[in-house]
Amino acid sequence: MICPNLLFAQNGNSYNSDxxxxxxxxxxxYQLNHSSNLEFRNGLAFKKNLDQxxxxxxxxxxxxxxxxxxxxxxxxxxxxxSEVAILEFIPWALAKWIRTWEDPAKNxxxxxxxxxxxxxxxxxxxxxxxxxxxxxxxxxxxxxFFNAGRTNGYNFxxxxxxxxxxSAIWEHFGETYRPSFNDWIYTGIGGANLGEILYRLSSMVxxxxxxxxxxxxxxxxxxxxxxxxxxxxxxTGEMGxxxxxPEWSRPKDFLIAFDGGIRSIDKNGDKQxxxxxxxxxxxxxxxYGNRFKAKKPxxxxxxxxxxxxxxxxxxxxxxxxxxxxxELEANKxxxxxxxxxxxxxxxxxxxxxxDTVYKGFLFGSTQIFPHLSSIFPIGEKTNLVTRIGINGMxxxxxxxxxxxxxxxxxxxxxxxxxxxIYAAIQNGIWNYVSVLYYGAWLWTQSQPDNSKHHxxxxxxxxxxxxxxxxxxxxxxGVYWRNSYYDTYEGIIGGVEYNREPSAxxxxxxxxxxxxxxxxxxx
Amino acid sequence: xxxxxxxxIILLSFGSLFSGFAQNDSYLKNRIFIEALYIRNLxxxxxxxxxASGGYLGxxxxxxxxxxxxxxxxxxxNKLKDNVSNEDAYLTMIPxxxxxxxxxxxxxxxxxxxxxxGLNLIFESDNLVGxxxxxxxxxxxxxxxxxxxxxIVSNLSVDVGVNYQNNFYDNEAMNxxxxxxxxxxxAIGN
Lengths: 522, 190
Description:
The complex is a heterodimer.
Chain A: H1 4-10, H2 19-34, H3 38-42, H4 77-98, H5 113-122, H6 131-150, H7 156-174, H8 181-205, H9 212-225, H10 227-235, E1 254-266, E2 276-288, E3 301-308, E4 314-329, E5 333-351, E6 356-377, E7 382-399, E8 411-427, E9 430-443, E10 451-465, E11 470-485, E12 488-492, E13 495-499, E14 502-521
Antiparallel strand pairs in A: 1-2, 1-14, 2-3, 3-4, 4-5, 5-6, 6-7, 7-8, 8-9, 9-10, 10-11, 11-14, 12-13
Chain B: H1 2-17, E1 31-41, H2 43-46, E2 49-63, E3 67-80, E4 91-103, E5 109-126, E6 132-151, E7 156-170, E8 173-187
Antiparallel strand pairs in B: 1-2, 1-8, 2-3, 3-4, 4-5, 5-6, 6-7, 7-8
């Protein structure tokens, strides 16, 4: 994936955020834990508590309930289905009975057998929701559906059926609108991605061996991260039992890094470079597991979340998770397939008395990334790491230059395919230099269709450690997009819309200056 | 034809590769299957092409715990609604799909839920408003349904299913409908 940030700013470097980054991160950690640089690792911030690892306040083994059978060790189909039904009912009931509608006729919760049959007959459409709703709210709802399966004993693949089915049911029967295909992908597949990440983080935070206030707080944090899992642990009494933690829930490799700095983006993208916006950017990067040891889905994943000082504040959320793969040569070459999710919103709205102008760009995708990962030693502690693969985008979003939907959508939707190449020179946990290229063709399926987009991200980043656990870095890059629009004549949402053929070329340079620190590593 | 034969060989080889996953004492076995289908089309699409018929040829790979991975292709021919007169018009689809079944029980009578997704290769002579327009399209397809498998003898089984499909065709006329299938499967590679 292309981690947005990545794209812009920190493309894949060490704590990188981007999926790419994550991988490099992983590689960095791999080196950390398995060979060199132990002295460096010992200097990491907050390191003093790391040797305690998990459960320093654990009860002794003899006090654990060996006979207790964890809820997730068996499948509980009907409870899972019931929880999906509850997760459907709550938002529907809020819209139906709680929310105040200026125009009651627009209440999408007024479903009936007529609307159900109409939706079944008319089939999919692409909706007009804005980027954040489609790329964040829906995946989160899907993550809840997913965990209705995952926390009731089902594995990753089986739980994905819960998020896909839950979303399909909602789209066909929970709203009066025609079912939205992009919602289904973002909720069903994006939800599986986010859901497994939340499931693993929640399982990592909760400590079945702990007692007292430590146990209470671990359950509270675990429930905040994964409400469905918290609910199940509460109703099954698991919160009050002391038993062993599942071995998989304590990854041997885990890293959280934080960086802060400034980002500059050219909003117009017209190569005149006269519309620069500078903003603060704060990013959280997380790497879970070891990609070279991953066997099951999401044994390894990377996650990046960024907040900007200017609008839109919620600017980035990228993740990548291992699905399956093959080791070609031990610790040197692997072929992996990951499930990636990208949310990069750099659309800058400018208001006048009569109009709102959308500048900048956005990019989102739910995709798979089959790729070859390699490590080439070039020094005692230094390696060249590379990844090259195919971007297989099930659903991607990029700006439309002419059309703004009445519901707020400023982007086109469609599937896409392209290439991604990443290379970095790494030493310890730092990437001294890295470069990322991400390219893809996107064929518009949403209305108005008859267009295609060729998008590219190129990011070069350099980083220099100034202490053992702080580095300062600079990245520069460009997002460019060539969009080709064919003639369109049609009615969208009851409004006639016509478009002449044209081509639009956008070029948005981005630069970033930042400091970075590892705050948790083991 | 060579490509079709090669594809079948690859599919069968793939199945043999994973045959170790299947439980030997299970009714769930790797199978080649053939199915006949009838589709009642819905919506704006169904206002022109009222129904379709055809068949599938596919291969299924059994996995432990009642799971079944399926790949299939076929031929689907749509029929104009009675009050639409255009004798030479045709709309034919070749689905290329992958998906799976979850069998609730592993006995002689095995009910299942099924999900299939993939692409429809569409060949049409006329558009929905009756204009002559020879076109080839590639559109996303998926369906969800219920059914059951009856294991008649050790290697032979009968499949019956009902599926709802919501395939892409045109933004104002998706290829929606209910599909009814009946077919036979022959266990191999177990």
